[in-house]
Design a protein that fits this description.
This protein is about 40% helix and about 20% strand. The protein contains 4 helices and 4 strands. Helix 3 runs antiparallel to helix 4. The protein is of the alpha+beta class and about 100 residues long. The radius of gyration is 13 Å and the shape is globular.
């Protein structure tokens, strides 16, 4: 199965444990996570790092920023729902926010 195909049942079952900081979006086959930073500068720096990683992975999030809060939604429009590409980007985003990327 290619990285842009939809998730298998077992991959979906592991979402709650492997991506515990992400939550399912009501009414959509998508995951979301909210990040709150010290200030706008820190939030914007995080967004810049995520943007570079998203471009590298050729997979771009839906996101919004209000002052120090960044909300990210991941879904794959080509498969009309979650895909392995979303999980790969979520893992990279987690590493960025944890400082291990």
């Amino acid at each position: 199965m290619a990285n842009h195909d939809g998730l298998t049942d077992s991959e979906r079952q592991s979402l709650s444990s492997d991506f515990k900081d992400w939550s399912m979006v009501d009414g959509r086959d998508a995951i979301s996570r909210q990040f709150v930073f010290r200030d706008f500068n820190q939030a914007f720096g995080f967004m810049a790092r995520v943007a570079l990683e998203a471009e590298k992975q050729d997979h771009h999030p839906e996101w919004s920023n209000v002052y120090r809060t960044v909300t990210i939604v991941l879904t794959s429009h080509d498969v009309k729902g979650l895909s392995r590409r979303d999980l790969a980007l979520a893992k990279s985003i987690n590493a960025i926010v944890d400082g291990s990327h």
